[in-house]
Amino acid sequence: MKSCKNILIAFATVALSLTAGKARAQYSEYEVKAAYIFNFAKFIEWPADYINGDTIFLCVYKNDPFGIILEKTMIGRKANGKDWKIKRITSLHETDKCHILIVSGIKQHEAIQVLKCIGDKPIVTIGDELNNFCNIGGVINFLPQFSERQFEINKDVANDIGIKISPKLLLLAKIISTKEDEF
Fold this sequence. Notes:
Elements: H1 2-17, H2 29-42, E1 44-45, E2 55-61, H3 69-74, E3 83-89, E4 100-103, H4 108-118, E5 124-128, E6 140-142, E7 151-154, H5 155-160, E8 164-165, H6 167-170, E9 174-176
Parallel strand pairs: 2-3, 2-4, 4-5, 5-6, 7-9
Antiparallel strand pairs: 1-8, 6-7
Helix pairs in contact: 1-2
C-alpha cells in the first residue's frame, strides 16, 4: 500500500509540475487533467506498427473544455521520447491518426457511436466524466472531483485493442472490467 501511495504522490507531483509557471499553486481542473493525460502516455504502450514515428497525436472530439491548456502542457515536452501534436476534430472520420482521443460533453448514445466507429483501433479513448464510459468500451474516464480515485480504466478494452497499460498506472485507477471473471 505504501508503494501505491508513493506512486500516487510522484504522479501528482509530476502532473502539477507540468502546469508550472503560475505565481500561486492553484490549478484549474483542466490543467490537472491535461497533466494527467501527459503522464498517461508515459505508462501506455501502443502496438509498434501503430505509433511508428516520433509523434503522439492527441485528438479532441467536438467539445473542447481544455482550450489552449493542452498546447501549454504538451507542446515542447516529450512522453517516452515522442513529441505531441494536438488535433481538434469534428468528424469521426478524422480519428485515423489519433493515438489518444478525448471525448467530453457528449451523451451516452453519442459516446457509443464514437466507440463503435473506432472499433478495435489501438486508440486510447479518454472520457471527461462521461457516465459509464469505461463500461461501454472506453479505455480511460476521468471521475468527478472528490471521487476516491481520479480516473477509471477498462483494462480489458485496452488489452483487446492491443494497448498495454503499466501496472503502475493501474494501481492509481478504479478498474472497470467488461468481462466476467474467468477461473
